[in-house]
Write a structure and sequence with these properties.
The chain is α/β, with parallel strands linked by helices. It has 17 helices and 15 strands.
Length: 436
């Protein structure tokens, strides 16, 4: 007679005594099947795990008491319970309250239909998986691990959210800030190193006046205090001979991606549109740059994304599509389509037409001018990555101006208190400042 089947859902990014305990308890009832959450299941509810699914699977299937490991592609247990029809499901009793309460109710309903049983065991006190994960993240990361995360995120999530960062402090905001909406944890998945905000924060125009060495020196502040992937704004990429060195440098630092635009000559910010001279590179010339960049990189993890400026330059969607197909054929890992139109209709048409021919290549957008459109709608167009490209700097400047004006008006800083963080909050904000 076959043993009873016991189902246990698990992330297993960190193995601790609480997980071993629940496996041992489950083994008392039969063969333990681990439903191992995939990156896709985890990414919309929690931060992407440090270890990949295959790495976690290798660890879990070698734990004593585990009979089988199967993928769980949803945060909910329902699909896998109906598929594998276990006799028991085992879970810690900590899901009786909070965000997982509804999941618990769904599990009881399905197990009743299957004539199975739910086993709840006391939560192992003194062990907090979320805190352990935070402690691991506090150790930092390596360039290789950081670089790989962007591709994993694109594969796992409906939309990857990227926030502009121009210093270590804004990097910490992108790293730490999260909100709870309908039981779902929303956070930023990575950072955008913008040439616009890099130059503006130094009081210089956005015309590639700040060289690569200077930008990377400042970017190091962000690299030191964060672990999430970084996308680098490479402007035009410069000359082909220079771009190959840029790729090597960024890859070595653990940057996940560089985005280069198909323009030539002295840079003019795209949001000027046709008010400024926007000269596009030839398709052949830009394809040569992409090919050179791809040939220069060492790993398969680094990404080169081609930014198409046709709509900015007043050209047609057909022109943009022709370029997109050519750039992908030349080796581009993604396409960024840019527009300064406020209704977003040209972006929508481009994406929908592109997706009819190419369902795989990631599409990146920067919805600065059409920012009334929500992420879910952008996803429905076929978009994978949304970059909020300048909002940290744009929000900081008005606040600082208001504070400075208040001090001048009142000849003291008392009235500006409400505009400022307290010194104590600042001391608690930066890791390592607080006394232990």
């Amino acid at each position: 007679m076959a043993n009873k089947k016991v189902y246990l859902g698990m992330i297993a990014d960190i193995i601790h005594p609480g997980l071993v305990n629940i496996i041992n308890e489950g083994a008392k009832y039969g063969d333990v099947m681990i439903g191992l959450y995939t990156d896709k299941a985890i990414a919309t509810h929690k931060r992407l795990p440090v270890l990949t699914y295959e790495q976690r699977k290798t660890v879990v299937q070698n734990i004593k008491g585990v009979s089988e490991v199967v993928p769980q592609d949803e945060w909910s247990y329902v699909e896998n319970l109906k598929k594998y029809k276990p006799d028991y499901i085992i879970h810690g009793d900590d899901w009786k309250e909070g965000a997982d309460k509804q999941i618990r109710m769904d599990v009881f309903e399905v197990m009743n239909e299957l004539s199975g049983k739910v086993i709840e065991i006391p939560y192992t006190h003194g062990i907090n998986s979320s805190q352990l994960a935070e402690d691991v993240e506090s150790f930092g990361t390596t360039p290789e691990v950081r670089m790989k995360r962007l591709r994993r995120l694109i594969d796992a999530k409906p939309v990857v959210r990227i926030l502009e960062s121009h210093c270590g402090l804004t990097g910490l905001i992108a790293e730490k800030i999260s909100v709870e909406v309908g039981g779902e944890t929303r956070q930023f998945d990575g950072m955008w190193s913008s040439s616009l905000t890099d130059s503006t924060s130094k009081g210089k125009p956005d015309i590639e006046a700040v060289d690569l060495t200077t930008r990377l020196h400042d970017l190091n502040d962000t690299l030191e205090v964060t672990t999430k992937p970084i996308i680098f704004d490479g402007d035009t990429g410069g000359k082909i001979e220079h771009f190959t060195f840029t790729v090597r440098t960024l890859e070595r630092l653990g940057i996940s991606c560089v985005i280069i635009e198909d323009k030539v000559g002295l840079k003019q910010n795209s949001l000027f549109g046709t008010d400024a001279v926007q000269t596009q590179d030839s398709i052949e010339g830009f394809c040569d740059k992409i090919k050179a960049g791809k040939a220069a990189q060492i790993t398969d993890d680094f990404m080169i994304v081609s930014r198409i400026e046709s709509l900015i330059a007043g050209k047609s969607i057909d022109d943009a599509l022709e370029r997109a197909y050519a750039y992908v054929a030349a080796g581009a890992d993604g396409i960024m389509i840019h527009s300064k139109n406020k209704d977003g209709e040209d972006i929508k048409e481009f994406c929908q037409r592109f997706r009819k021919h190419d369902k795989i290549t990631p599409i990146v957008v920067v919805p600065t001018t059409y920012n009334h459109i929500k992420e879910k709608e952008l996803v429905s167009w076929g978009i994978n990555v949304v970059i909020y490209a300048n909002h940290m700097l744009r929000s900081a400047y008005p606040a600082m101006v208001k504070c400075a004006q208040s001090i001048l008006e009142h000849e003291r800083s008392y009235e500006a208190n409400s505009l400022c963080m307290s010194v104590k909050e600042i001391l608690n904000l930066i890791p390592g400042t607080k006394k232990k």
